[in-house]
Each structure stands twice: as structure tokens, then as C-alpha cells.
Predict the 3D structure of the following.
Amino acid sequence: MPDLDAIKTETKRLLSEGVVEVVVAFKPGDTPLHPQPAFFMNVDDVDSLVYDGLCQNNLATFLTRLPKSQKIGMLVRGCENRSVNALVVEKQKLRENLFLVGIPCEGIIDWRKIVERTGEAVIAVHENDLNVFVDSRAGNFNFNRADLLHESCLRCTHRTPVNADILIGEALPEGDLTLAATAVEVFEAHEIDERYAWFHKEAERCIRCYACREACPMCYCTECFVDHIEPRWTESGATPAGMQGWHIVRAFHQTGRCTDCGACERACPMDIKMTYLTEKLNHDMRNKYGFVTGLDAQTQPPFATVTLDDKNRFSV
Amino acid sequence: MLQKPKIALFQCQWCLYAPADQEWVDTQLPENIHLTKTPCTGRINPLYVLNTVQGGADGVMISGCLPEQCHFKTGNMAARRQLEEFNDFLNHIGYEKERVRFVWLDLQDRGIIQKQLAIFEEELEALGPASNLVTRTKVAEGGRHA
Amino acid sequence: MNLILEKQALPGLLQGWREQYDVFLPQKLERFSHFLPLTPDSVLVTDEPHNTRIPPKALFLPMTETLVKFTRFGGYQDAQQNIHPRIIFAIRPCDAQAVQLLDTSFIQESYTDPLWLEKREKTITVGLGCHEPCHNGFCTTVGYGPFNKVGLDALLTDLGEVFLVETLTEKGYSLFLGLREAQQQMTEVAQRVQQQAYDKMPVAFETEGLKAKLEQNFNSSYWQEVSQSCLGCGVCTFLCPTCFCFDIADETQRRERVRNWDTCMFRTYSLEASGHNPRPSKVERTRQRLSHKFVYWLDQINQIGCTGCGRCVRYCPVGLDIRAMLRQAQTLPFEVNHAL
């Protein structure tokens, strides 16, 4: 479990010493399953800061909504640190204006997995390193934390923030790199029509609410491709072409930019699976170009670094 | 297959050096082939490819210049990275990889594009009409609520 | 008329309705429930969270609906709906009340939406009241309730082995011919169940004086505070049974003019062609959303535009809770707003 006292102490220091103007973290939600992103500007408010497995949002998504010149502190887990790096690479933020408080992560709890087991009427949730205790109207439960993790966290490869300004907690050993590759291979082992049937079934539930887009730190375009009217490339509504086009192109726009954080899937109100799309793209970037998003704040992604050497890469 | 396969041809405007080839593509292209010319293959947004796929293209051919012959230096290489990955990605979700074909033409090539299209058409006939991802249909009457 | 419906007779009754009507009822879809057409294998789903994830407003205002079809050469025709008479079964009172609220927008003296009207006229709603409060709902707080009858042709109360059926309209009554009348004692049991359910609903926030507080604090920093972690997605509005905004788009490649659900929470919603945006940030848009529900609906029809279904609370990706936002609003001072 993250050392909450140390986190609060550091947050207070950042504010009181004027290192940053705001620290982006979490505070308790109004419902027990959903801590909310919070923007701390006063030292006095920091005591309400929380940080646990239910903090399910990638906080880096708020960075592009704050001015580039603002000095911002942020609590980051492994994936979030890489998202921040990706934003710096794309010149959306200046690294020197950011203070990253790195927290090695044991995985985010998928609140839906709790509700599946305990029913909707959850009253309180507590956790420690190994267990999650849930009080609900249906009774009191004790789960293994590992059983409740979000799918993306099960395949996480970078649990420890790679270049945070300070690390609170022991660095964690890196996850098994083969798990992500295996997931992609397992999916591709299915017949092509089965793969399409799966994709079609998932995309069919889409209501075009764009929660996935807003939750994603890398989706920051002021005008998204779906907002283009002239020409209208992607159908605007909940039609098969529209829903599929949305998922295909949003995922593809993440090539070389996605950190597999899974925030998109957690945000979706229709429980649509979509990380299998970006996982494939990340897998290809790793295998074809040796590229992993956000390991530092300088390396450009493959689609931005075209060279004539490529002629040896592709067979005509 | 009763109809000829529908092919979407994306071509950069520079890759056909011979006037005979240019004229053929501009005026004598068979009816089942739909041409979109771009200033460079690097301009081909994967969205265009997806648009043709959703509209029922049985195959997509992308034709451009060889490395080191791109009028815009590296446009064709950018296209290669993006569109090759997009092809893999579409294959991942159900559009056969063989339906997307890249043809890179040398300045000295003559008559290659016609040959390639003919070969592609035969292969697509063997593969059959595309059905996965072909989704541009009219909204069901009464609207959609699911 | 109060009638008794044996639970074991329900499947037969539903299947019998299929001869004349399409029947929609909440069924399992993935991990939640959704109004799907009745089939021989259908299983009614009524457990928590009681209501379907997508509200039944979708059966009247679909997510995407064709308005006009046009030809390449300039001709066009209004799209024909193919609406078969239908029954929406086990709709919850919050959702039924919401459909009635939406009627005030779509059916007006000055203009009636023909697509909405036809669907409405061909629909019979049979409600299922909530004898246990759902976890995030607050229907009683906003002036409605778990056995609210507005918008329903009949209302079912679950009494264990049987349902008490209260038919509220001719259309409702016509569905339950042949059922035996309820005895006075059963009616009283049902009334007690209903009253208990009503009493069990917690009060989520105070509505007395809320409208004035929201109006008079138009420029307060409160709006900045409550909107800070909002992502600006459309989850709350799309899952909301009383939200009805739509955008009209020309799908030129399909030669159709369609209308799609739209949301005031998107930046592009109020973006004008000149580039000016009267609601440039989340602050203004959040203020708009809350004010529409709790101020402007009251101005227009003297009813709160929220039926307390709880979906926005349950599915907000950042855990924003409208109940907490309104409790906080109640702590705001009365501030005279000179700008208004």
C-alpha cells in the first residue's frame, strides 16, 4: 500500500515551498467505490488526500487541461509517469514545470469486479497489501486484492515510475513482459471471423459518449476527428460503421503513444473492452521498432521518426 | 463471384512516370477500381483506407514511389510505417491482410500498375467478397436504441 | 382497477402480448440489463441496480435516428418509421416519469415532433415499482418516488408470490383482461409496501430554496470547484432519462440526415460557427447542466428535470456525485447577482 503519510507530507512540502501551484491527486469520492481526482492548492486541504487501489483515473489526462506555464505537481504511478513523458515528447507540457511524485503501483482495483461479487449496495471499502474488505448491504466480504485488479494491471510492465522527481515507496520488480505479448497472440490465434465477431460485439454497445477519449491522457486534440463535419469521415452516431470507426481510429491514433493504463476501459459506461486494440498496437511498436511509450521524455515514437533506413525494414 | 472485386486504389501523383501509364490510370481504369490520387502516399490518412473498407472495398491497393524516389523525400516511408501497421491492425480485427496491397514503383517502370491490379483482382476473386468491417448501411428504420 | 397477477403466470402473459405487440423488457446484456425485445427465452432482470443501464428514453429517442433520406440528385423524403405497437414492461417509475417530462419538450402546441409522437402513441408502459431502494437513487428527494404513477399505463407492485397490478389507463387495463380483481386486503398490503419503500428512500439533498441558491450564485467559485475533475465526457447526459439534446448531422456518404444524442458537456455543443463559444470551459458547462435540471426545468414547467434514477452517480468515470454537488450548493450564501 502506498505510504499515505509520506505522500501527504511531500504534497504539503511542494505547496508550502512554492515548488508547484497545484498538486493533482485524489480525494475521497462521494461514493465509496470512486475516489475523485483532486487539485490541491492549499496545504490545509491536503489532509483529505487519499491514494489507494480504487483511484482508477489516469491523472495525466488533466495535464493538457492546465496551462503549459503552470507549475504542476502530480502523483504518478508507472503508467501515468509514462503518459506524462509521452506528453512532454509531444511538447504538450514542459518537464521543468512538472514535479512528479512517483508511487510504485500494485495495480488498480476494478470497481466492477467488486460490484459483481458484492452487489451494488457497497457501503465501505478498505484494503491492505493483500486484501480488500468490502462492507455492503449483502454482507461483509474479504477478497484477494489480486483477484480484483483491472485487466490492464495484470499485464503491467512498468509498475515503478521511470523518471519521477521523487519516489515514495520501494521500487517494484517489473512485470512479466511476455504477458502482454501472450494476450495479443491468444487473440490472434482465433480465426479471423471470430476476431471480427468479438470486435463487432464489443463496439456494438458504444453510445459515443467519448468517456474513453476524455479519460485518455493522449487524447487532447481540441478538435477530434469525429468532430470533423466536412468531410465527414467517420459516421457520427451509434451506427455500426460509426461505432467501429470510432474504436478503430481512436486506438490507431494512440500508436506509439499509449501506455496501456486501461483508463479508457475503466471509464466506459457500457463495459466495452478496448485495450485489446491498443495492446496490439503497443505490441507491434515493441516488436517492429523496439519502442515502448514514455520510457523517457525525449524519444520520439515510430510514426514520427521516419528514415530512409526503413527501406531495409519493409520488403517491397 | 458474380461481380468483379471492388478495389480502392490510392495512388500518389508522381509514381507513374510514363505518360501511357498515367493516361491509362486517368481514363481507362476498369469500373470496379476506384481511384483516389494524392500528392504523396504520405498524405494517405488511414481514415481514407478505413472509409473504403467500410464502404465495401474488397481490396485496397496503395501505389507510390520507391524509397529515395519520393518527390517529398520521406513521405512514402511515413506512409509505409503507418499504413503497414494499419493493415496489421485491420487484420487483427477481421479484415484479411491480403486485402491490402502495396505497390512501390520505380521511375523506370512501365506497365507495372496494370499488371499488379490484374493480379490483385484475381487474388481477391479467390478470397471472395469482403464482409467483415463492411458496415456502411442505412440506419434501421425507427432508429437504433441498443 | 386493481388486479392480481400470479408470478408464474407472467411468462405466459408476456408471450400472449406478442401477438399484437412488440414487447420490451429488461434482460441481461453483458453485465447489466437492457430493454430488449421479448423472445421465447427471455429472462426478466430486476435486481440491483433496478433500472437498465441505458434509460428507456432510447426507445423513444434512439441514439441515432434517420430524419430525411436524400438522393444524389437533390431529391429527399422524410424517413418512414416502422413502429409496431409495443409494450415496455417493467419500466421503473423514475424512467416513466422521465418520459413524461420529455413529452413536454417533444409535444408542444407550437411544434410536435412526429417521430416522438408516433412512438409515444404506439407505446403502452407497464411499470414495476421498487420495493427496495436502489443504492444510488434519490427519486423521493426530487419529488417523485419508487411507486410514482406518472407516465405509466399500469403499475406492478411485487408482493412475493404475486404482483398487484394497478391499471391506470384504458390501454393498461386492456393488457390484463382476465386477471382476477384484487381484494381490499391485498390492495392494503400493496399500499403498505409502497409506503415503506417510499419511507426507506434516503433524502439526498434539500430541494427547498435550491433553485434560488443556484440562480443567485451564477458567478460563484462553487462552479469551478465542482467541475474541476469533470472530464467533459457524455456519460451523465447520455445515461440520463431526462436529457434529450440531439445533434443533427448529414451523413453524406449514406445519403441520410440523422439525429444523434448530443450533450451540453461537450465543448462542441455550444461552439458557434464564428468560433465563439458561450460556454468555453467545463465551469460553464457544468453550471449549465445542473441549472437546466434544477432551475430552468422549474422555470418552464415547474418540475425538477431530474427523476433521481442514480445513473449519473453510478457511472461517472471520475466519481462526481450530483447529490453531493447539490448539498454543497445548499451551503452557498444568497448572493444577489448584479450581472443577471
